[in-house]
Amino acid sequence: MPRESGAGERRVALVPKVVERLTGKGLEVVVETEAGLAALLPDQQYTDAGATIGDPWAADVVVKVAPPSDEEIARLGRGTTLVGFLAPLAHPEVIQKLDEAGVRAFAMESIPRISRAQSMDALSSQANVSGYKAVLVAATESTRFFPMLTTAAGTVKPATALVLGVGVAGLQALATAKRLGARTTGYDVRPDVADQVRSLGAQWLELGIEAAGEGGYARELTEDERAEQQKRLTDAITGFDVVITTALVPGRPAPKLVTAEAVRGMKPGSVVVDLAGETGGNCELTEPGQTVVRHDVTIASPLNLPAGMPEHASELYSRNVSALLELMIDDEGRLAPDFSDEVLDKSCVAGKEAK
């Protein structure tokens, strides 16, 4: 496990508890010096777990969080196996460079979202962190209390929160906002998630537009559907104090769900937290990575929220990585990925034919 080089990336691919599990299976784990410091994990904890502090780039398998830089790719030997978030759809050039370098690469975000692979589903584990943090951002930026408060000076009504896109991040956002006392509502173009929204004590916003797609994702809407959706959403959004957006379409720019007109119609002091900033944002007025005020409405688009909670985010991600590693290592501790397995076949994005 090398030290992460990306700006602001505090997560690690292996935590000491998982290192202990891997070394207990007879594997040798090499950790780069100070690789875990940003996650408050000193070298001593790794050596106590059985790891060696040294050069990780010479290992048979290199595990990371963020995609490798050009310099890091150059340090990977031909025949090395790389595991991490590799952004194969957003950055195909990285995959091409890995392929040309003779590196066999497994992208954590390409693991199929099937029941058998739930323990490896890093997208879901990290989305839980994002959904939780998004609500805390909203509560911090809001000019209003989330819960109803009864005081000697009178009663304060609870804030109303709308979550657009109720996958894992959206459901966590609904649950967290509910715990803080807000009146919550969820919306998604996939009607089958309505029961999940209601199970969290939230209301379902019915707009009459459905777009269920493959693999648990939403399909891209047609132009007519998108126009009608925006019209209905614009009318609905203006009635909420907080709007949290999480809608993503793999390999495509984020759909624009919150129009400038909708922001203009929101009450002054309202908040929009846009979790789709990496792919352009769900709000027309979003500035990815920035918090801005437009028409007296605060629009926050924090990037890489899981990195802000490195302890638990790393713990969850490390378990995902370990589960994938165990799938490709045989009983004798040899690296022997079986590509007849759907999980390994679909997650291998480069060097599948490498020996």
UniProtKB/TrEMBL annotation:
One Pfam family per UniProt: AlaDh_PNT_N
The EC number on file is 7.1.1.1
Show the InterPro entries listed in the entry.
AlaDH/PNT_N, AlaDH/PNT_NAD(H)-bd, NAD(P)-bd_dom_sf
The answer to whether the entry has keyword Nucleotide-binding is: yes
Where does the record locate the signal sequence feature? none
Q: What does this protein do?
A: The transhydrogenation between NADH and NADP is coupled to respiration and ATP hydrolysis and functions as a proton pump across the membrane.
Q: What is this protein called?
A: proton-translocating NAD(P)(+) transhydrogenase
Q: What organism does the record attribute this protein to?
A: Pseudonocardia eucalypti
Q: What is the lineage of its organism?
A: Bacteria, Bacillati, Actinomycetota, Actinomycetes, Pseudonocardiales
